[in-house]
Amino acid sequence: MTQIFDEKGNVTGVTVIEAGPNYVTQVKTVEKEGYSAVQLGFGAVKAKKLTRGELGHLGQLSANEKHPKRRAVSGLAPVEHLEEVRSKEITQKEGDILKADVFSIGEYVDVGGYSKGRGFAGGIKRHGFHRQKKTHGASDRERAPGSIGAGTSPGHVEKGTLMAGHYGAAHITASHLKVMLVDAERNLIAVSGAVPGPNGGIVVITEARK
């Protein structure tokens, strides 16, 4: 994250995202797959880091290695990440390259990604519980959740009770973020506010739903 100033001198906190180049690796249609979507590939890597199935999907196998029934798109670079974006109107074709210039300053987008994984966390960190008393014999109970159920009725812990457990690494979408900057030469865009995930994480930018 960083911040930028507009022409009036107002400062806005933004997140800079590398938004390309994205390769159209597959176009799915209602007639064949049952829905309409575009599959995009991002992050060029060496071919040896991909499996043979991935290389075949990207058209990177030699002629004698290809299966006759396997679909392949010629001319695509080996990419590390594949993501699907559904759309009713698709104008792209397999092999096209999408760069940051598909965005324009002032439009609104949704940015989805996976939040930072925090492992197994207690109730205070995971749900914002308050501490308990540290006195009167409760020296080891200050971070404990306390009672999680009643007695005879219902006689068990109810579903959905807030307790310690796995925290983070969940898919989150930051909605209605304004595009503040577009750098087509370096394939960079800046959106207002924060986006899910750590620095260097993978996010998907789509048209704003709201």
Explained architecture:
By secondary structure, this protein is mostly beta strands. It has two domains: 1-19 and 100-138 and 162-210, Beta Barrel (Elongation Factor Tu (Ef-tu), domain 3); 21-98, Double Stranded RNA Binding Domain (2-Layer Sandwich). Helix content is 7%, strand content 34%. It contains three helices and twelve strands, in the order E-E-E-H-E-H-E-E-E-E-H-E-E-E-E. The chain has helices spanning 30-33, 52-57, 123-127, and strands at 2-5, 11-18, 22-28, 37-44, 79-86, 97-98, 108-114, 120-121, 165-166, 171-183, 188-192, 203-207. The protein has a six-stranded antiparallel sheet with strand order 1-2-11-10-7-12, with no helix packed on it. A four-stranded antiparallel sheet has the order 5-4-3-6. The chain has a two-stranded antiparallel ribbon with strand order 8-9. A hairpin with a 4-residue loop joins strand 10 and strand 11 (188-192).
